[in-house]
Amino acid sequence: MLEHHWTRLQVAKWSTSFTRSSPAELLRQLLTAVQHWLAKNPDQHVDALRLKHKVYADSRTVTDIMPVPRIPIEQLFPSTLGRPTDPPPSPEWQIYLDDRPTEVSETTMYKTSERFCYDRARATAGIESYVERKEVLLFNPEGEIMDGSITSVYFWRDGQWVTPESMSGGQQGTTRRWTLQKKLCIEGKIYASDLKDGEVVWLSNASKGYFRGRFVSNPARARTADKGP
Fold it and tell me: Could you state a single Gene Ontology molecular function term (predicted)?
């Protein structure tokens, strides 16, 4: 997976004058950051650490580290996504559709700190916290699904899992690259108009691994159900 993280960093740098690093250099930087964190926090006994590697416009790099719960290895590196009829391996997420199209730009295609379009989509869908098991799908002016606000997405079409093609304008996330490499999915156009209420959608990101959700065509109805009688 590290190779895919490195590749994603290089793609994001194409429009800059940054000096190109190597996968080995990235690994060295991450290991050094972890060693420094452990030295500064000798009394913390953690199950796992989350690393967020940031590259600034002046070519500085900073690695933020935070303790996180351990995630089962099969959730991080699944051997299959199964079929929609399979029992869910964990509580399912609610997945909504944004209420307006998002223009394709460097912000939607590359991993950057600019998150306005994603934050707006989450707010519109009524998602108030990253702790909630909720996601919102963004789509371009042609009606093609791009990706989720914090995840790569996979839809069951014609007997196989399909992730929105790169030309749709979404980010080429590391887990998405890995899923394609392992032939767990293929690329294809996914149109917002084709989504069915209740259909199973797989989601993935580097922090949480792979997890399943269901598309909800009416977010307001779902929010009412969450509150109960």
Answer: catalytic activity
